[in-house]
Amino acid sequence: MTDFTHFNEEGRARMVDVSDKSATRRVAVAFGRVLVNRETFDLIRSGGLAKGDVLTTAQIGGIMGAKRTWELIPMCHPIPLTGVDLSFRLNEEELAVEITAAARCTGVTGVEMEALTAVSVAALTVYDMCKAVQKDMVIDRICLLKKEGGKSGLFERSDTP
User: Fold this and answer.
1) Which of 10, 15, 90, 145 is 20 to 30 A distant from 56 in Cα terms?
2) 120-135 pLDDT, tens digit each
3) Which fold has domain 25-145?
4) pTM for the model
5) Three-state helix/strand/coil letters over 121-161
């Protein structure tokens, strides 16, 4: 791809016109993680944080973030999502909360930004829920793992995040 699609002939920002595209089933999967210390990890696992259940709250936050992506990211189209799901893995070896989000729709544009936003908002929610006990958490490795549908077809990340 040699051209950035979000600029017009004068080099000004624009929202891409997708009215001539065909609706297809589209799926995107994204990943990210929050690195925490031992105390925070144990509190997340046991449900012992004063603010409540971290992973349930992050699940809801991630879904809400995906649904509002078009309001947060300039030039994103509002997309009628047909599904958003997040999963969490507590990686004890790395003291990490690993987050995977999948977004789905049948539409004329992809859902990569929705999956990435879901992961980002879920990670920020983990941070917010835990900041009273730890301020130096790190959010990292946010990336697209997979997308399918549309003109560009299938993309699968070749390396592990």
Assistant:
1) 145
2) 999 999 999 999 999 9
3) Alpha-Beta Plaits (3.30.70)
4) 0.93
5) HHHHHHHHHHCCCCCCCEEEEEEEEEEECCCCCCEECCCCC
